[in-house]
Amino acid sequence: MAKVTVDGIEIEVPNGATVLQACEAAAKEIPRFCYHERLSVAGNCRMCLVEVERAPKPVASCAYPVADGMKVFTDSAMVRNARRNVMEFLLINHPLDCPICDQGGECDLQDQATAYGGQGGRYVEEKRAVKDKYLGPLVKTIMNRCIQCTRCVRFATEVAGVPELGATGRGEDMQIGTYVEKALTTELSGNLIDICPVGALTSRPYAYVARPWELKKTDSIDVLDATGTNIRIDTRGPEVVRILPRVNEDVNEEWMADRGRFSFDGLKRKRLDRPWIRKDGKLRQASWEEAFAAISARMAGVAGDKVGAIAGDLVDAESAFALKTLLRGLNSPHTDCRQDGAVIDASRRDFYLFNSGIAGIDEADALVIIGSDLRKEAPVINARIRKRWMSGALRVACIGPEGLDLTYRTEHLGEGAAAISSLIDGSHSFAEELRKAKRPMVILGRSALARRDGAAVLAAAWELTRTFGGLSADWHGFNLLHHFGGQVGALDAGFLPGEGGLDVAGMLDAGLDALWLLGADEIDPARISAGTFVVYQGHHGDRAAARADVILPGAAYPEKEGTYVSTEGRVQHGRLALHPPGEAREDWRIIRAAGAALDVSMGFDTLDALRTRMVEANPAFGLVDGRIAGGCNDTTGPAASGQLGSEAFSSPIQDYWLADSISRASETMAQCSQVYNNPAPRLAAE
After folding, report:
1. Torsion angle defined by CA atoms of residues 576, 580, 583 and 587, in that order, rounded to the nearest 10 degrees
2. What's the CA gap between 373 and 398, in Å, rounded?
3. 626: which strand partners?
4. DSSP for residue 506
5. Which residue, 50, 173, 182, 382, could crosslink 169 as a Cys pair with Cβ 3.0–4.6 Å?
């Protein structure tokens, strides 16, 4: 540790820390533009100048290491004058168009010019003009505002792993952009907007929509993947206008995937905003009373073993638990939340969780990825793996389709499950890397279980983890990666077949008398028997709604209070940011009312009562904003059945931008799908 004096305050900081970090430890604010805690040090904006005793001139604190006995001054006359001069230079070519800039009110340049700048500038020559660059349908550029801090270049290269941004030219001719004009090929491009300290990179969908002080801000959770990203939903009136990430070091740090960030315009398109009933072969609008009367008339007296329910991938845990309660009240064992047909062993919670935790990636030293395209399934988790790989402490191997670009170097072991066996028996060379590892990890993609040999793959992945010491009292290296935010919560709620119950495929093929679809949009509705009475409850008129006999309009995730469980088992609450449109209602309220219509005692009338019932059924729901962490004390694996198949693993998400019902209703995501699925250099910027 080094002892440093900052403005008369003596503190101790680790050896190798920078002067800027020492100043922050002493609670001194240091202005900066190029410096960012999660990026490499560039030292090119010079705004962070401080005075160091016996130094001949001000030093850039972000790039200057501390020394024992150093004395630093952050507010001397030399420092104030130096910062004023630096700010004057930064504003030489800036257009000063704050009144029309989307960054206005949230701009670091604006704030620091006010706090640290002078009273005016002496530059009277013509300002330079820079042509705007095309970075894709999500990020809007106004490059006249760029101060060349290079945060965007470093983020694209270091975090996103796509070195497509850079600087060309020198001096006044220097410009930031893609070398060949094209859309950035990353699922994390929206984070460029957050880290840009000026208005050079802004959100294209949000352009000229609102000012920050007009917005109502609500903390919530992104459910469009299973990471559990902490987000802030900004609304104006009855509309979501922006979604931003919140900092959570254990989950998403401060990053967010593009689909969750930009698909919010799908919340106002193709919405179900009132009940519908099918009469004479056609759907017509109805009241809630008529809808429940139709359900009661068709389902009353139907035997329990002729009624089934399927839950979708975006449902909150309260809705899944309430629907399970309703079905059990009807004496039906037919409930399932695995639309993809994944063979998941729910006899123990660690059989279906990302047990190492997302933060646990920072400790891993060897990783095997089985049947997962992490870049599409969980971009933020993939970025965390890249960060660990960039440190040089992680070796990564992959079993799955050859040629996947995960943004970091992987050793391809094979395309099918036979490669798992070759690791277990030690015949593959990567087995030696696993044997030497102190913290080995296995990440099993959920799609690897949606095969005929799914149970055998699950058991083999567990055995692989156990064989190389990944299951111990202080480390749990087995990780199942889910795809959407409602999948783990439904498993925790027990929304699985009861004794003698049918799974999704069985319900679709069995010709049940009644089938309740709770946001289940990923099944093939053509497989439902023509004589089955179908109740569809959801928020979008997507694939399954057209097959319904009764449609009950529910609420999307920003429109209700809901519990969501991430792939690592972290229980988090989403908050009500705006009310659902029209006559749509929260899903658990709809199910409770349906229970009353069917004379089923639900046992709850309020959200608090429902959550109390959930905690009684599964105590994991009581650990809000946390997860049950720890090692593995019982290494007994899931039950294996059958043999490993010879077919290759496949990527489950064919189109990242249209992977769920909200995104499929989004014009922004449709544009992204068109651009990124037909990549071609763009000759002119939009």
Report:
1. -60
2. 10
3. 571
4. H
5. 173
For tokens 């970090």, the residue is: 21
Question: How many CB atoms sit inside 10 A of residue 592's CB?
Answer: 20
**Among 487, 541, 80, 48, which residue's Cα sits nearest to residue 311?**
487
**What pLDDT shows up at residue 686?**
41
For residue 515, give the amino acid letter.
Answer: L
User: Which among 628, 588, 580, 584 has a CA at the least distance from the CA of 608?
Assistant: 588
Domain(s) labelled CATH 3.30.70.20 in the chain stretch across: 119-265
CA distance 627 to 479: 14
Name the band, by pLDDT with cuts 50, 70 and 90, for residue 119. confident
β-pairing, 175-178 with 230-236? unpaired
> Which tokens sit at 635?
């290494």
Closest CA to 568 of 344, 252, 256: 252
Q: In the β-sheet with 533-538, what is the strand arrangement from edge to edge? A: 282-285, 276-279, 550-553, 533-538, 514-518, 307-311, 334-336
Q: What is the pLDDT of residues 351-409, one digit of tens each?
A: 999 999 999 999 999 999 999 999 999 999 999 999 999 999 999 999 999 889 999 99
* CA–CA dist 263, 669 (Å, integer): 6
pLDDT tens profile 575-588: 999 999 999 999 99
The candidate with the shortest Cα–Cα distance to 197, out of 30, 84, 24, 32, is: 32
Is residue 336 a contact partner of residue 504, using CB atoms and an 8 Å limit?
yes
CB under 8 Å to 346, separation ≥6 — which residues?
352, 491, 494, 496
Contact 657, 259 (CB under 8 A): yes
The predicted structure's pLDDT at residue 427: 85
DSSP 579: P
The fold of 119-265 is Alpha-Beta Plaits (3.30.70)
CATH 3.40.50.1000 fits 350-482, yes or no: no
pLDDT band at 680 (very low <50, low <70, confident <90, very high): low
Residues counted in the chain: 686
At 478, is the secondary structure helix, strand, or coil?
strand
Both tokens of 124, joined, read 């009277």
What is the average pLDDT value for the chain, to the nearest integer?
94
- Structure confidence at residue 685 (pLDDT): 39
Extract the tokens encoding 346: 């729910």
Sequence-ordered list of residues with C-beta below 8 angstroms from that of 120, at least 6 positions apart, any chain? none
The span from the CA of 402 to the CA of 650, in Å, is: 10
Partners of 471 in beta bridges: 476
Do the Cβ atoms of 388 and 437 come closer than 8 Å? Answer: no
Given this structure, which CATH class describes domain 2-90?
alpha beta
Q: What is the four-CA torsion angle of 50, 53, 56, 62, rounded to 10 degrees?
A: -30
* CATH number, domain 276-340+487-622: 3.40.50.740
Residue ranges, CATH 3.40.228.10, the chain: 350-482
Higher-pLDDT residue of 171 and 611 is 611
Residue 679 — pLDDT band, cuts 50, 70, 90? Answer: low
Six-digit token string for 184: 């950035």
Determine the pLDDT at residue 683. 42
Domain with CATH 3.10.20.740 in the chain: 2-90
In 500-518, which positions are buried (b, 16+ CB within 10 angstroms) versus exposed (e)?
A: ebbbbeebbebebbbbbbb
Token representation of residue 108: 């670091």
Burial class (CB in 10 A: 0-12, 13-18, 19+), 625: exposed
Q: Are 510 and 501 a contacting pair, CB within 8 Å? A: no
Asked whether 537 and 518 are in contact (CB, 8 A), the reply is yes
Tens digit of each residue's pLDDT (9 = 90 or more) over 613-639: 999 999 999 999 999 988 999 999 998
Q: Across the beta sheet with 71-73, what order do the strands follow?
A: 9-13, 2-6, 71-73, 49-52, 59-60
